[in-house]
Amino acid sequence: MHKKAVILANGAFPTHEIPLQELKNSKHIVCCDGAINKLEKAKIEPYAIVGDLDSLDAELKLKYHDIVHHFANQDTNDLTKAIHWCKKNSFLDITIVGATGERDDHMIGNVFLLPRYAKIVKVKMLTSYGVFTPIIRSKNFESYTGQQVSIFSPNSDTLISTANLRYALTNQKLEQMWQGTLNESMGDSFRIEFEGDSLIIYQEY
Amino acid sequence: MHKKAVILANGAFPTHEIPLQELKNSKHIVCCDGAINKLEKAKIEPYAIVGDLDSLDAELKLKYHDIVHHFANQDTNDLTKAIHWCKKNSFLDITIVGATGERDDHMIGNVFLLPRYAKIVKVKMLTSYGVFTPIIRSKNFESYTGQQVSIFSPNSDTLISTANLRYALTNQKLEQMWQGTLNESMGDSFRIEFEGDSLIIYQEY
């Protein structure tokens, strides 16, 4: 069993019960520094605070000085810094919350960073509406009949096949990012097979 | 001058002042059928209602029977149907509102559909945080110093150069979707030049 952590990113603080419970029940919350004020307000204690510390005021810096981890690298965003901190500290099963719901470009950027993270940790992202799971190899997903499912293929050459989805793919490419959206599960599981680069699977709650 | 229309998509009803004013001030609101209840609730009259009419109840169907336009094509989503209706009716300058803020996969799908629309109409999408503009040729953008800007390149082979952005690109590819995010305008305009496929530019308000 890998050690689990929940990363709180600096988007909208979770309001949906599923990401909120995940956050509240976690013993290892790794907080991107821009999100620490929201976590304070919710009276939840972080296990670690990671970032460039730009957004941390002096009082919080003092309060949390023993769990604050400074990464000065300007070439990665806070979420990526948090993932690297987790990896370095042997947290290899990561749930990201709070990564959506504010700036749209951050949201898209964060979603399309997931395949990179999947190469070093097990990771998923919980939003107010569903869960994004990056996959680097073929995978079965637990589901339910009628669950809305979308497939995003960052590399348009990837050949994809599906089992138990309403609109089946058979060794097909998704040449446009919208082409794999609006699919639907036919039962309590479905399967995504592919050759090539990573995919991102979205399942509505 | 092209005739203008505002399309109300079936995501979250606008709350930010910019898309909301755009909607309220429009004489030609083209409403995706799933959004008609929200428009009714806001006491705003549509000019046209477009979709497969699945989500329209009998009362509204009767009330709006003379402006309801049925598209049965199951292969396109409601937003695409609304764009085609606009094109057919000579509305060639389109502002999309209400396309984000609910299901994350719809939001991503809608954003990456924009370059297709840009081939047939002038179009932009207003969200609660900023504006997405698809471009099919090099373009100058009005801006302000410090405006947050992100560039999305659906085709990773596209060669891009920028002028007056903090992190300049010079005939560079954006091989990953997150690589063009988190840029910033250096003044009251910036320029995006590119060879190849279309781009999507995001500017924070």
Automatic annotation (TrEMBL), chains A, B:
SUPFAM superfamilies: Thiamin pyrophosphokinase, catalytic domain. Keywords: ATP-binding, Kinase, Nucleotide-binding, Transferase. Residues 130-200 form the Thiamin pyrophosphokinase-like substrate-binding domain. Its EC number is 2.7.6.2. Residues 22-119 form the Thiamin pyrophosphokinase catalytic domain. It is an enzyme of class 2 (transferase). GO terms for molecular function: ATP binding; kinase activity; thiamine diphosphokinase activity. One of its GO terms (biological process) is thiamine diphosphate biosynthetic process. PANTHER family: THIAMINE PYROPHOSPHOKINASE (PTHR41299). This is Thiamine diphosphokinase. The lineage of its organism: Bacteria, Pseudomonadati, Bacteroidota, Bacteroidia, Marinilabiliales.
